[in-house]
From TrEMBL:
<comment type="similarity">
    <text>Belongs to the class I-like SAM-binding methyltransferase superfamily. rRNA adenine N(6)-methyltransferase family. RsmA subfamily.</text>
</comment>
<dbReference type="Pfam" id="PF00398">
    <property type="entry name" value="RrnaAD"/>
</dbReference>
<feature type="binding site">
    <location>
        <position position="77"/>
    </location>
    <ligand>
        <name>S-adenosyl-L-methionine</name>
    </ligand>
</feature>
<dbReference type="InterPro" id="IPR011530">
    <property type="entry name" value="rRNA_adenine_dimethylase"/>
</dbReference>
<feature type="domain" description="Ribosomal RNA adenine methylase transferase N-terminal">
    <location>
        <begin position="35"/>
        <end position="212"/>
    </location>
</feature>
<dbReference type="InterPro" id="IPR001737">
    <property type="entry name" value="KsgA/Erm"/>
</dbReference>
<keyword id="KW-0949">S-adenosyl-L-methionine</keyword>
<keyword id="KW-0808">Transferase</keyword>
<feature type="binding site">
    <location>
        <position position="30"/>
    </location>
    <ligand>
        <name>S-adenosyl-L-methionine</name>
    </ligand>
</feature>
<protein>
    <recommendedName>
        <fullName>Ribosomal RNA small subunit methyltransferase A</fullName>
        <ecNumber>2.1.1.182</ecNumber>
    </recommendedName>
</protein>
<comment type="function">
    <text>Specifically dimethylates two adjacent adenosines (A1518 and A1519) in the loop of a conserved hairpin near the 3'-end of 16S rRNA in the 30S particle. May play a critical role in biogenesis of 30S subunits.</text>
</comment>
<feature type="binding site">
    <location>
        <position position="28"/>
    </location>
    <ligand>
        <name>S-adenosyl-L-methionine</name>
    </ligand>
</feature>
<feature type="binding site">
    <location>
        <position position="124"/>
    </location>
    <ligand>
        <name>S-adenosyl-L-methionine</name>
    </ligand>
</feature>
<dbReference type="InterPro" id="IPR020598">
    <property type="entry name" value="rRNA_Ade_methylase_Trfase_N"/>
</dbReference>
<keyword id="KW-0489">Methyltransferase</keyword>
<dbReference type="InterPro" id="IPR029063">
    <property type="entry name" value="SAM-dependent_MTases_sf"/>
</dbReference>
<feature type="binding site">
    <location>
        <position position="55"/>
    </location>
    <ligand>
        <name>S-adenosyl-L-methionine</name>
    </ligand>
</feature>
Length: 283
């Protein structure tokens, strides 16, 4: 069991700053030091690295990233009640912590041109925006991406969806887009009792490294094809892709129209997508 002292220490800090975690913002803070260090070092040594953290809250992971040698840490925090704590941490690490108050979903990270490379995004993502942030990062119009790796916490069920392979019930649009552009691997699970407030679900850490040369495929067309295919996932591809003249697409791709979306590999989807793009003069 985790020492109550660690949990009480976090609760005391929140109380000192009159902070109340907001459930509607997905705020569940990890307080176990060993697990925080394990997350921080999943991608290797932090020496010379710029780490980006989304939703730092009271800065538990932030401090670990700085202690373990990150050259710079950039945090994006939407909730203003955490700014005094983060500013206090910044004073302890002069010129190494940059605090951005704002909504991570609205920030174009590529425009942060002052960020020194290599860049790793390491975050205990707020549960309510985790998949949307990941989707934004893996569907960037610019590839290879600005980041070297992602180490992210999700709900365990979301982690299964991200890393699922074909014929798995968790396999879906997010799995396809993730595997097309990255190598994603579940590293380890984190139980509910090491968070405050305690969530009802188990979390999982997923590590991503980008494929520098993914299968050639039009991003927008792939998004469209996968949206149609998995939007009606219990239907056959003949039915789900009907709005896109799916029968013809599947015949040209040499894929049985009686299959379902979950039966196709990323290579199959890219083949269908490339035919769709060619037929519709999409580049």
């Amino acid at each position: 069991m985790i020492s109550k002292n660690k949990k009480n220490s976090l609760k005391n800090i929140l109380s000192r700053y009159d902070i109340v975690p907001h459930k509607n913002m997905g705020q569940n803070f990890l307080f176990d030091i060993n697990l925080l260090k394990k997350i921080a070092t999943t991608s290797g040594s932090l020496n010379g690295v710029t780490a980006i953290e989304i939703g730092p809250g009271p800065g538990n992971l932030t401090q670990i990233l700085l202690e373990l040698g990150a050259q710079k840490v950039i945090v994006v925090e939407k909730d203003p009640q955490f700014l005094p704590i983060l500013n206090n941490i910044s004073l302890q690490y002069p010129n190494r912590l940059e605090i951005i108050q704002g909504d991570a979903l609205k920030i174009d990270f590529k425009e942060l041109s002052h960020i020194p490379a290599p860049i790793r995004i390491i975050s205990n993502l707020p549960y309510n925006i985790g998949t949307r942030l990941l989707f934004n990062w893996i569907t960037s119009s610019t590839w290879p991406p600005f980041w070297e790796s992602l180490t992210l916490l999700f709900q365990k069920e979301v982690g299964k969806r991200i890393t699922a392979q074909k014929n798995d019930p968790h396999y879906g649009r997010l799995s396809i887009l993730t595997s097309w552009r990255t190598k994603a691997k579940i590293m380890f699970d984190i139980p509910p009792h090491v968070f405050f407030p305690k969530p009802k679900i188990t979390s999982t850490v997923v590590h991503f490294t980008p494929h520098l040369n993914p299968i050639p495929c039009c991003l927008e067309s792939l998004k469209k094809i996968t949206q149609e295919a998995f939007g009606k996932r219990r239907k056959t591809l003949r039915q789900s892709l009907k709005p896109l003249e799916g029968e013809n697409l599947l015949r040209q791709a040499g894929i049985e129209s009686s299959l379902r979306a979950e039966n196709l590999s990323i290579e199959d989807f890219c083949r269908i997508t490339n035919i769709f793009s060619e037929n519709n003069n999409v580049s």
